[in-house]
UniProtKB/TrEMBL annotation:
Molecular function, one GO term: tryptophan-tRNA ligase activity
The enzyme's E.C. designation: 6.1.1.2
Family membership noted in the UniProt record: Belongs to the class-I aminoacyl-tRNA synthetase family.
Chief localisation class: cytoplasm
Subcellular localization: Cytoplasm
Entry binding sites for ATP: T9, T10, S11, G17, N18, G154, R155, D156, L194, K201, M202, S203, K204, S205
Catalyzed chemical reaction(s): tRNA(Trp) + L-tryptophan + ATP = L-tryptophyl-tRNA(Trp) + AMP + diphosphate + H(+)
Species for this entry: Luteimonas fraxinea
The entry's keywords: Aminoacyl-tRNA synthetase, ATP-binding, Cytoplasm, Ligase, Nucleotide-binding, Protein biosynthesis
Residue numbers binding L-tryptophan: D142
Residues of the full protein shown: 5 to 339 of 439
Enzymatic class: ligase
Function as written in the Swiss-Prot or TrEMBL entry: Catalyzes the attachment of tryptophan to tRNA(Trp).
Motif ('HIGH' region): 10-18
Name the UniProt record assigns to this protein: Tryptophan--tRNA ligase
Length: 335
């Protein structure tokens, strides 16, 4: 079977970008015949950005409840917390020792930190942790430990998946066998990058997100705060580069989207357009919001589900793989 795998970093409240970029395509993919799916909470990754224990824990719970509310069935899909599979960090070291440092130098997140330091007149690596630098190797370990074929992600993660392929290839080459197959990013072209309230990529770091499960009234307020140009009703609007239009497209049917484009050309007022956007988002989110609220009220159940998933996954795949890899690289297996 095809193996599909993806994760979300537990560093905040899940937003519409995480939903359309990762959760929704992943759940759709998991329902395809002969697919084995692996969906997890990237809590080790969260330590890079959010060094706040209470926030990491709360975020883990919220993101787990989001997956479940969106329809993930833990009896059919591997659902787990990254840190519950400690073999991942061991594999990370094996990959670290074949990964080219030059490749990591080019990672977007690391480069952005260096560029910012330069702009501020600081040393290149001022306040940059080794964790940020090594981020792509940990992500490669997440993917390779279960030999995933497809990784549904937003466009911002493509580079990381290319790096995972590169590290896999090097490892295979050095250790003389196809230990790992080469994973591919699966990008939903309709929503490759969902814009946020200000038109830039929706991202916690830009503070421009629409959280998935805010109350209806707040969702409406947020939708009405999306930045538009100052064209009046009756003036033709451009769909090109319109955040409002892109958000609509991510939640509407193709027919609805065509109708919306026609309304733009006909000069729909921004207030009307925002109301229509709110309607399609609310239509999809409302049933999930109810399930989410039930789930989040029972954190003990979520905890049990995660722990059980991680435990079974270790026994089935992670422990046996690391045993083989330890042999392959010349380390001793205990017991
Ligand atoms: P993270 O937590 O930043 O984002 C989770 C997923 O949401 C997608 N996403 C978006 N998609 C479309 N439009 C947006 N505005 C938007 N914002 C976020 C991201 O592309 C991602 O798919 N490193 C990863 C987590 C991770 C992972 C992995 C993913 C760790 N290990 C292994 C896949 C496989 C991250 O920080 O994503």
């Amino acid at each position: 079977p095809q193996r599909v795998l993806t994760g979300i970093t537990t560093s905040g409240t899940p937003h519409l970008g995480n939903y359309v970029g990762a959760v929704r395509p992943a759940i759709t993919a998991s329902r395809a015949p002969s697919t084995e799916s692996f969906y997890f909470l990237a809590d080790l990754h969260s330590l890079i950005k959010a060094q706040d224990p209470a926030r990491t824990q709360r975020s883990t719970l919220e993101i787990a409840a989001t997956w479940l509310a969106a329809g993930l069935d833990p009896s059919k899909v591997w659902f787990y917390r990254q840190s519950d599979v400690p073999e991942t960090t061991e594999l990370m070291w094996l990959l670290t020792c074949v990964a080219g440092k030059g490749i990591l130098n080019r990672a977007h997140a690391y480069k952005a930190a260096v560029d910012k330091n330069r702009a501020d007149g600081e040393d290149d690596d001022a306040a940059v942790t080794a964790g940020l630098f090594m981020y792509p190797v940990l992500m490669a370990a997440d993917i390779l430990i279960f030999n995933a074929d497809r990784v549904p992600v937003g466009r911002d993660q493509i580079q990381h998946i290319e790096m995972a392929r590169d590290f896999a290839q090097r490892f295979n080459h050095v250790y003389g066998r196809d230990w790992f197959n080469l994973p591919e990013a699966a990008i939903d072209d309709n929503v490759a990058t969902l814009p946020g309230l200000d038109g830039r990529k929706m991202s916690k770091s830009y503070d421009n997100t629409i959280p998935l499960f805010v109350p209806q009234a707040q969702l409406k307020k947020l939708v009405f705060s999306i930045l538009t140009d100052s064209k009046m009703p009756g003036e033709a609007k451009s769909t090109d580069g319109s955040a409002l239009f892109q958000l609509y497209q991510a939640f509407a049917t193709p027919d609805e989207t065509a109708g919306f484009a026609a309304a733009f050309a006909d000069g729909i007022g921004w207030g009307d357009a925002k109301q229509q956007l709110f309607d399609v988002v609310e239509r999809e989110i409302a049933p999930m919001r109810e399930r989410y609220e039930d789930l989040i009220a029972r954190p003990g159940d979520i905890e049990d589900t995660l722990r059980d998933g991680g435990q079974r996954l270790r026994e089935r795949y992670a422990i046996p793989l690391l045993r083989e890899l330890r042999d392959a690289v010349g380390l001793r297996n205990l017991g």
